[in-house]
């Protein structure tokens, strides 16, 4: 019987990557900056969007949202209440989003003058970091209530993220930790990406992240329409 060599260098995720590259071409044809938000469940991804999307709209950078969850449409309902176009993906047990899911969801969004597409990934610090979806930037979100050891336990996400958001910082006075503890742990893995401290109790805390998003958009697409 004839034997054939198996090329073990072919990435297991190669099909997903190819689909993601197609996604990216579609996004860029629409002049959309795509942000993949990744975090544990309950870290505040949806709360972040509820606060950031209206600010972006005020600055002339309206946004769209693709919501990923194992079940329910609760997060999408929250976003829709802010008058932001949103499509829900339910993975029915899968712990991450994949490129083909994003394409199907995106086809349901009618893009008009929107400039930023947020993908709120399934709450998980492991699998979502491994799946490229065609996004321009990965953003890691970590709440102070999770503890400062999370970056070291789940290093891939924090190494690859273009930006890290530390949420619920208003709770720091009630914890035996400091913001310096969190920043130090993140910097062990990623010494260049900005770290923004935010809290829904302090609306102004989101502005630096909003400015970062706008600068990312301008660096890719410029100011032309």
Automatic annotation (TrEMBL):
Record domain CobW/HypB/UreG nucleotide-binding: where: 34-195
Keywords attached to this entry: GTP-binding, Hydrolase, Metal-binding, Nickel, Nucleotide-binding, Zinc
Gene Ontology MF terms in the entry: GTP binding; GTPase activity; nickel cation binding; zinc ion binding
SUPFAM superfamilies hit by this protein: P-loop containing nucleoside triphosphate hydrolases
Coiled coil spans: none
Gene Ontology annotations of biological process type: protein maturation
Family indicated by similarity: Belongs to the SIMIBI class G3E GTPase family. HypB/HupM subfamily.
Protein name: Hydrogenase accessory protein HypB
Lineage: Bacteria, Pseudomonadati, Thermodesulfobiota, Thermodesulfobiia, Thermodesulfobiales
Name of the coding gene: hypB
């Amino acid at each position: 019987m004839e034997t054939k060599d198996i090329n073990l260098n072919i990435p297991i995720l190669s099909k997903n990557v190819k689909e993601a590259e197609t996604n990216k071409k579609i996004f860029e044809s629409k002049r959309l900056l795509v942000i993949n938000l990744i975090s544990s469940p309950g870290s505040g991804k949806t709360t972040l969007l509820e606060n950031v999307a209206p600010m972006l709209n005020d600055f002339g950078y309206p946004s769209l949202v693709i919501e990923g969850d194992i079940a329910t449409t609760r997060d999408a309902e929250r976003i829709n209440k802010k008058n932001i176009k949103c499509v829900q993906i339910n993975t029915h047990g899968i712990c991450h989003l994949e490129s083909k899911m994003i394409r199907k969801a995106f086809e349901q969004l009618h893009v008009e003058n929107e400039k930023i597409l947020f993908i709120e990934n399934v709450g998980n610090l492991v699998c979502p970091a491994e799946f490229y979806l065609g996004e321009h930037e990965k953003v890691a979100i970590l709440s102070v209530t999770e503890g400062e050891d999370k970056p070291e336990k789940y290093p891939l996400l924090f190494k690859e993220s273009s930006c890290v958001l530390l949420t619920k910082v208003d709770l720091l006075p009630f914890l035996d930790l400091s913001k310096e503890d969190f920043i130090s742990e993140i910097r062990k893995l990623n010494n260049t990406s900005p770290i923004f401290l935010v809290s829904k109790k302090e609306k102004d805390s989101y502005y630096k992240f909003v400015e970062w998003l706008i600068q990312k958009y301008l660096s890719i697409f410029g100011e032309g329409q």
